[in-house]
Design goal:
thiamine binding; single chain; elongated; thiamine diphosphokinase activity; Rossmann fold; kinase activity; alpha/beta; 2 domains; TPK; nine-stranded mixed β-sheet
């Protein structure tokens, strides 16, 4: 199994602990300032891509020294830096793509980044967004097992399509049987597993699985 991780330009204070995922990742890709974040944390960078308009020349040099491949683009382009990084990731034929540093900051970028999960899933690849409070994964109809994760104990399901039909939750504190939820529904928000594992299933539509941890006190 091949796993690629992309680190974007989101606020660093929202990043998950990247080193804790190091053993799971085969290739690290830095998008714009995300490449500098990787270089500064001494995580080997296979590809650094973007217009690098958010960093100075000293930071660029550190990226160049740390990255196996460095690709700089014009500021005026059709794709975001993250999308360029994703296109590079897809060339590696991965089974999984992890996205870090893609939440927080500008809401337009965050919403667009979440929608990239659809592009990834549509190619038969597991795509996950992770930050220090959340784990997001787009799912397709069928039966899915979910294991207890003490880091992210709160579990929510958000309809990605206008309607999601036949949702059944087994092994949850709030079980559900063959229900339909639509955009704007809060029916499947903030649930928890009642044992070490559970399943969720549905027949039609697309669900966004969100696992969250309680906010960390400052």
């Amino acid at each position: 199994m091949t796993t690629v991780a992309i680190v974007g330009n989101g606020p660093e204070e929202l990043l998950a602990d990247l080193h804790s995922y190091h053993d799971k990742i085969d290739y690290w890709i830095g998008a714009d300032r995300g490449a500098f974040v990787l270089a500064r944390r001494q995580i080997p960078i296979q590809y650094a891509v973007g217009d690098f308009d958010s960093i100075d020349e000293h930071e660029k040099n550190l990226i160049r020294e740390s990255a196996t491949y460095y690709e700089e683009y014009q500021v005026e382009k059709n794709e975001t830096d993250l999308e360029l990084a994703l296109l590079k990731a897809l060339e590696l034929n991965p089974d999984e793509i992890y996205l870090f540093g893609v939440t927080g900051g500008r809401i337009d970028h965050e919403l667009a980044n979440i929608q990239l999960l659809y592009l990834i899933r549509n190619k038969g690849i597991k795509g996950v967004i992770i930050d220090h409070l959340n784990y997001l994964e787009l799912t397709l109809p069928g039966v899915h097992e979910i294991m207890e994760d003490k880091r992210y104990s709160n579990i929510s399901f958000i309809p990605y399509t206008e309607k999601v039909e036949g949702i059944t939750l087994t092994g949850f504190y709030y079980p559900l049987t063959n229900k339909t939820i639509t955009w704007g529904s809060t029916r499947c928000i903030s649930n928890k597993l009642s044992s070490i594992s559970g399943t969720f299933s549905y027949d039609k539509g697309i669900l966004l699985l969100i696992k969250s941890r309680d906010a960390i006190p400052k």
